[in-house]
Design a protein that fits this description.
255 residues; 3-stranded antiparallel beta sheet; 4 helices; globular
């Protein structure tokens, strides 16, 4: 090998290693939530006649844009609490459980409302190098103090992270896993909690019907139903992250 080429080769190898390290580091940052406010994990109970809403965003080079993204997310979540239209199909699978397919939703509000004239105020916020969190209240004609702890651990699994029973008609649990971006993971977990709540409210199907004759299956009926429904006064009140298994849980409650 030409000795003059050795420095260039070493430099290219070093450059390649730095690229790999940067990719791994970026992935770690995308996956991680190193610190977060306690009100992101569990939403405080608002005063009567008022609503809290949480917004969040990931890392932005421009911090002002990151704060704006978190605030816009909080406003959208606020309107979801008011009313949200959900369309989806329920299909029964072989073990009798109902699976949601073809989900879509529409936040029902006048698009002109989603601007800086909305009647809200920022109650608290947390901004780090990798994340932005904001808590707002609406209407804005009140002063509230919300206790905030800065957390870096999700602690033990809460009681609500379990399979629901048929009696749980006023709660929904959104569950997602294997996401690169924690922001997208929470957005989808939050949204799916609304669908899970709608499923519990609207489901009128029976379990799979089967008949057997001398051990042979002679009749099987798979249930499929399409739904177009509106939820009102539903709020995502708790979140929990299973770090070991990389699973995100969101709890939605109808009031």
């Amino acid at each position: 090998m030409n000795k003059n080429a050795e420095p260039a080769l070493r430099l290219s190898r070093l450059f390649f290693i730095l690229i790999i390290f940067s990719i791994l580091l970026t992935t770690k940052y995308l996956l991680s939530q190193e610190v977060f406010p306690s009100w992101f994990k569990k939403l405080p109970t608002p005063p009567s006649g008022y609503r809290f809403s949480v917004g969040y965003a990931g890392k932005y080079i421009n911090k002002d844009l990151g704060k704006l993204a978190a605030l816009e997310n909080a406003l959208k979540n606020l309107y979801k609490q008011d009313s949200i239209r959900l369309k989806f199909r329920l299909e029964e699978i072989s073990d009798g459980r109902m699976r949601i397919t073809h989900p879509s939703f529409i936040i029902i509000y006048d698009s002109s409302k989603l601007n800086w004239n909305v009647d809200y105020k920022i109650v608290d916020s947390l901004y780090t190098d990798k994340s932005y969190f904001v808590l707002i209240i609406s209407p804005s004609d009140i002063n509230v103090n919300v206790a905030k702890r800065i957390l870096n651990d999700w602690e033990e699994k809460p009681d609500w992270v379990k399979l629901k029973t048929e009696k749980d008609k006023n709660i929904g649990i959104g569950i997602v896993s294997n996401y690169i971006s924690w922001v997208r993971a929470w957005q989808d977990a939050d949204d799916f909690s609304y669908f899970d709540l709608a499923k519990a409210k609207e489901l009128n199907a029976n379990s799979i019907h089967t008949k057997r004759f001398f051990g042979f299956l002679i009749e099987s009926k798979i249930i499929k139903q399409d739904f177009d429904t509106i939820l009102r006064n539903c709020v995502v009140i708790e979140r929990w992250y299973d770090k070991t298994n990389d699973i995100y849980y969101s709890l939605c409650v109808e009031y």
